[in-house]
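note to self: dont lose this again. the chain is below, predicted strucutre after it. 428 aa total, dont forget to put it in the shared folder this time
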Amino acid sequence: MTARAIVIAYGALLLAWMVAIGGRYQGFEAEAVARSLLAGHGFAFPIDDAWLFWNDEAETYVPTAWVDPLQTLIHAAALGLLGEQAGYAILTLAILATAGAAWILAGTAARHLHPLAAPLAVLVLLGAVAHTPLVTLSASLAMLGVSLLLRQMLEARRGWRAAACTGGVLGFTLMLWSALQPWLLLVPGLWGWRTRLRDGVVVGVVALAVVTPWMLRNVLVFDTFVPFRTGGGQILHLGTVGLGGTIAPQTVVDPPPWQAATAFEAVTRVLGDSTFSRDRARLEAWQHERLRRALGNDPMANEAERDAWLRREALAYILENPGLTAALGVAKLWALLVHTPGSRRLAGITPGAVAAFLALLALLPWRWCWRARLVAAVPLLAYGALFVLITPYFYRYRMPVEPLVAFLAAATLMAFARRLRRGPTTTQ
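---
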């Protein structure tokens, strides 16, 4: 009861905050594409908002897969129905999704850890998330999907109905947060391990059925396979070639516009919550100029082709500079752990940072609730591994998996409590 009272109080506080700021919400790229949809231009960017394109290019609208589709469709529906008051609906949905994720997590922690773990998990989750639902819809909805997936995987009921339901949740979560795409194989595998192989296959098939229409659309538009969204090449290139060049200018033909002494300094200078990083903007301008020169006689290359060029150069750079890439990877993982709302530097100590380190302790090989911890830890580690190469510029990059972090952190706290209750052991 205490845990859910905390959730209700948190939701009410954010709803009051939303009213106080007048429902003000910035949808950024998703809003631009949503307005294009409503104007009859399809799932496309206006040329002045398009990444990897320039205003002097001929197209007025550029077909895109740069934004996750489900949140964009929600934006379009809200704008179509409510016009400029759509922010109230979008923010309310984000707040309810976050509160729903915490509500589900409370029940999961109480059932699979201990009743007292419920308020602990909720406090850890909401303390880490803080006010972030007021600035991101897709991460809030994805967090709700992850909470549902965690509950489903821990209960792991046999039968095709439970498997199909889990597959549906997985598919829609991927449509909200494409960085979770390794889970398209991982979650069915965990489900098959927890139940039966054929049930795991059902999870995978249903999830694939949900995302296939979007994949087919991308193939038809870009004439190449884009499973979920573009932009992976751009962010990979900036986090390897761009940041690597700031530390070791000799590794790139034309060095970036600023220099850093260490990997930690380079990563710190491109982070930004709520405020736009000037150093990151300078790197992006440098990256765009490299791309523009590389296009040469092919200025009409589509978004997927431009993103693929950046990805190829990034992968070549990684192979040529493995030590530098590893050093940057350590700094990026550290940023993922500690760069949360309220912190501007990599040394920031916030509730989210404490939660992350408590979750790491849950990975130690102690026996209590080992199966539940394993089910939460494997997807979390798979997601975190992406950030060896990708820079977590904003806290929202971590937010979708925060229920897993909170669950593991609560497990650690309960293990400490059990140890204290038993007292020290002595040997004769």
